[in-house]
Every structure is written in C-alpha cells, then in structure tokens.
Design goal:
By secondary structure, the chain is mostly beta strands. Helices cover about 0% and strands about 50% of the residues. The protein contains no helices and eleven strands. The N and C termini lie far apart (about 40 Å).
Length: about 120
C-alpha cells in the first residue's frame, strides 16, 4: 500500500508562489499515475494536474494551465506541484493521489490519497 504525505502549503499573497510536495512511502511511484486535486470550502474536490511517473503527457485543469507545473524527483520518490501567479480562487486543500494504470483526471479513479495541505491565497 502506498502512503502519501503532502507538504508545502501555507499562506501567500495573490501573485505569489508555492511549491507543494508529495512524498510516497511503502512503495515507489514507478508504476503509478500521480494526480493533484484540490477542494475549496463548500465545493467538490477537483482535478488540478496529473502525469505518469514513467513519462508521457502531463495534464492540467484549464484554470491552472500556464501557472502550475507538476514535476518529480526520482531519487526522492517525490512529486511536486509548482504554483505561480496564485489567485485567491486557488485557495483550497490540495491533495495528491495515485493509481496503478494510465493517467486519469477523475477523483473516483484514484486509489490512494494523502491527507492534504492547505493553501490560502490572500487578495
């Protein structure tokens, strides 16, 4: 079983940047697709970005395209979400998730979830 631990959240002003990390324990990411999702208060959890550890295309929600970048560090078995030009509407709890199989963008398609990290963007 994969355990995921997110970190890097915090409070930032609009226009600022944050980098979230998602570290895996128990197994390596090598056979997994990894996704980032977020959930704002009173809203459903939504897709942000995803890719497969082994390579291939990266997918982004339209709302973050051009501002957010998903990447990885093989040696650290860690996935990152670099968030730039942050907006107040990016305020949410951010989750990383994994699944065995191809990249997916739906919440229900992912099997393992981290505990989430809060990102708050002030105006």
């Amino acid at each position: 079983q994969v355990q995921l631990i997110e970190s890097g959240g915090g409070l930032v002003q609009a226009g600022g940047s944050l980098r979230l990390s998602c570290a895996a324990s128990g197994r390596t990411f090598s056979n997994y697709a990894i996704g980032w999702f977020r959930q704002a208060p009173g809203k459903e959890r939504e897709f942000v970005a995803a890719f497969h550890w082994r390579g291939g295309p990266t997918y982004y929600a339209d709302s973050v395209k051009g501002r957010f970048t998903i990447s990885k560090d093989n040696a650290k078995n860690t996935v990152y979400l670099e968030m730039n030009s942050l907006k107040p509407e990016d305020t949410a709890v951010y989750y990383c998730a994994t699944r065995v199989g191809p990249v997916a963008t739906m919440v229900w398609e992912y099997d393992y979830w981290g505990q989430g990290t809060q990102v708050t963007v002030s105006s």
